[in-house]
Structures are given as C-alpha cells and as structure tokens.
Specification:
By secondary structure, the protein is an alpha+beta fold. The protein has helices at about 1-10, 15-55, 70-85, 115-125, 150-155, 195-200, 205-210, 230-240, 240-260, 270-290, 290-310, 310-320, 325-360, 370, 380-405, 410-420, and strands spanning about 60-65, 90-105, 105-115, 145, 160-165, 180-190, 200-205, 220, 260-265.
Length: about 425
C-alpha cells in the first residue's frame, strides 16, 4: 500500500497536476450536486405541498354521497371509527360549502368551512379559538377567520366587516341569495396559494344556524392511529414517507368498512395528480442528468490518461523495480476513489448552497399562483444520496477500467525504450 501512496504523491505533488485534478474533482462535484438538487427540489415540492395540506385537515376526510350526514350515518361513522381504533379526540365534524365574499366593491368566490375550534385544533395545526368569542370589540356579529392572501387582496384585518353571500336562501324565498354580515377575527396562512386566496372559517354551530341545518354536517375529518407519544402531524414531519404509507394502508380499510354511501379521501387528494406527475418527472430527469455525470467521468478518465502520459517515465520505473500490474491497478483505483470521495463531499457543500439560495434569493422564489407554494427547500433523504453517489462510483470505475485496460496493453520494454531513448 505504501508504494501505491508514493505513486499518488508523485502524481499530485506536481502543481499543474494538482490544479488539473482539483478542477476535475470540482466539476464532478458540481455535476453530482445538480442531480441531488434536482431530486431535492422535486421531493421538497411534494413534501412542502403535503405538509401544508396536512396542517389544514386530518389524514382522511369522509363525505356523504347524499350531502349532509343523517343521524343513522353519523352513528355508523362513530361506530366504525371506534372499531378501527381512531381516537375520539382525533376526529372533527365540518361543513364544506361555497359562497361569495363581498367587500369594498370586490367579489370573490370562496370555500367556507364550518369547524369546531377545539376538535379542529386537535386534528390540525390551526388554532381557531377566536371563533368561540361571543363579542369582538363589543360587537356581536358572527366571527370569521380568513386566509392570508384573501386578506391582502381585500385589504382586510381583524375587526373589519365582510359580507358572505350563500346560494341557499330561506325557506320562503329559496330563489334569492342569503347574505350574512361577519366580522374578521383572525388571518391564517395555509402556505398554499389557492387556500390562502379562497378559504375562510366559521364556527360550526353558527354556520349551521345560517344554513338552517342544525346539528348536521357534511364532512368528517380524522387522523389515523399513530404512536401514543406523538400526534399525527409530528409523525408526518418526522417521516413523511412512512406516515403517507400508513395513511395509504389505512385508507382502503376505512372504505371497505363504510361502504358505498361514503366517500373517503386522503389529505393530498386535491393535488394527487400533480404529486404523481412530479414523482414521474423526478425519475425521468434524474436519468437524463446522468449524462452530465458521465461527461464529468470522462474528465476523470482524461486526467488518468494525462497522468499516464506525463508521468510515464516514473510509472515504467516503478514497474522496472518490480511493481506488478495488479499493484499499479490498485494505485489507479485508489486515485479514482479519492476523486469520487472528494467530489461527493464537495457536492454536499454545493447542495447546501443551493438550498440556502432557494430560501433567501428572491429571484429563485416560486410564483405561488403557478406552483402553489411561494418557496421551498431541498428535501433529500439518505436513499437518494446513496443512489446518486453509488451511480457515480459505478460510472467512474467502469470508464476508468476501460481506459486502464487500454493503457496496460503497452509492454514494459516498449515503454522504457520510448521514455529513455
């Protein structure tokens, strides 16, 4: 092993050779980091999207095909969820309906959610306790919590009045819209453009009274059973892939027990097609970007050939003094591994820089109305690192072996004759 190290020192102690080697290593590191960053952006987008969706609803949401749940359906729901082991504290009834928000001469269609603040907070990360206040600034109007983008577009802040128009009128005048005046008590951020732009929350009992549907609801959201030491949201953030798999495995069990009368949807359902498309694109782009790594690997081979030509005299002298071809092969292998290991470490620095730039450089922030998320960070798991680093190593060893196989065809005598003639 000492002889191999001595040979490497002869290669790298030369200043021009060291600069050449350093440049090749940095080029390979950048190529690796591009693939890692691409994978990280794709996974980061999916994670950011799922995380934002998870924070605003339970793992699974049940809807009735008949609209509002009747009393018998509600009894079935509670009984079946008890059998499935879903804690009563991890369930929350809701009303999903639509309307128009009117304020300052502007109008926008909105999704109205009626929620129980306490149970909703247990299932999600949203604290909507302001909805329980009976009076705001000595006023008794029904309270509403709106999305951040909606508040910005309509220039609303807590304490302002808004009007919501519902399509359903009273029993006497069903053809006319129902207009309700509300007071804004809080502004929340969903981290998803569409929800921040169009979602607002009312107290469930108040919305039931407005719609004339006392003690009825049309959605039931809940979290799947997880470890007693953590809640569902913590479980997702710790290991989003495993938690998603747990929800996917729990999903068919719920559908099978509830039957055809109910519709069950996971929390990412609204963006499921986009998420699947991103996963497919990630695999295709990663394969295409292997071309970049392959070009950098050819630079490594060019470096080996350069050393073989420039240091041919030293190499043949080592062979003349008894260094076998197998030991020479090990020296080249050690050199290739050194380039690969150095490039892999440096690529981590490039990846960290890319991650910082995505979060802090305004030019790289995403247009939220197009990509749903305003910004994202790289999300790269250990398996991704192993695949990218392993594929790079295989390319280096394969191409370097072919190059060395061609170099070793020159005999010792012919090499000595050429170098010392």
């Amino acid at each position: 092993m000492r002889v191999e190290k001595t040979l490497l020192q002869i290669f790298l102690f030369d200043r021009s050779s060291f600069k050449f080697s350093f440049g090749v290593m940095v080029g390979l590191a950048f190529s690796i980091s591009v693939i890692l960053a691409t994978i990280g952006i794709m996974d980061g987008f999916v994670y950011g999207l799922k995380s934002a969706l998870k924070e605003g609803q339970g793992d699974l949401t049940i809807r009735s095909r008949d609209g509002f749940f009747n009393s018998s359906q509600f009894s079935i729901l509670d009984e079946e969820l008890n059998i499935l082991g879903v804690s009563s504290e991890q369930r929350t009834p809701m009303i999903f309906t639509e309307g128009f928000l009117l304020h300052g001469g502007q109008t926008r269609g909105v999704l109205v959610r009626g929620v129980e603040a306490n149970s909703f907070a247990n299932v999600t990360s949203f604290n909507l306790s302001e909805l329980n206040q009976e009076k705001v600034n000595s006023r008794t109007l029904p309270s509403v919590v709106i999305g951040k983008k909606l508040a910005k577009d309509f220039q609303l802040s807590p304490g302002d009045d808004v009007t919501i128009t519902f399509a359903q009128g009273s029993r006497q005048v069903r053809g006319l819209p129902l207009m309700v005046r509300l007071i804004v008590v809080d502004v929340v951020s969903h981290n998803i453009h569409e929800q921040d732009e169009r979602t607002l929350y009312l107290d469930l009992s108040q919305l039931q009274g407005i719609l004339g549907t006392p003690e009825r609801f049309n959605a039931y959201s809940f979290n799947v059973p997880v470890s007693d030491s953590v809640n569902s949201l913590t479980s997702f953030h710790r290991d989003p892939i495993r938690h998603t798999q747990k929800v996917e495995s729990f999903f068919p069990r719920v559908r099978q027990r509830l039957g055809w009368d109910f519709v069950v949807r996971p929390f990412w359902h609204d963006f499921s097609s986009l998420i699947e498309a991103v996963e497919v694109e990630k695999g295709m782009i990663s394969l295409i970007l292997q071309i970049i790594v392959l070009i950098s690997v050819f630079n490594v081979v060019a470096l080996i050939i350069y050393f073989n030509e420039k240091k041919a005299r030293q190499i043949f002298l080592f062979q003349a003094m008894g260094m076998s071809r197998s030991r020479l092969s090990r020296a080249w292998l050690l050199f290739a591994l050194l380039i690969w290991a150095s490039a892999s470490l440096v690529s981590l620095g490039f990846v960290a820089f890319f991650d910082w730039a995505l979060l802090n450089v305004a030019l790289l922030h995403l247009p939220s109305d197009v990509y749903h998320l305003g910004s994202l960070s790289l999300k790269i798991n250990l398996q991704d690192y192993m695949i990218v680093f392993g594929a790079t190593l295989i390319w280096i060893l394969l191409v370097a072996w072919i190059a060395f196989f061609r170099m070793r065809r020159k005999s010792l005598l012919s090499g000595l004759r050429e170098e010392f003639s």
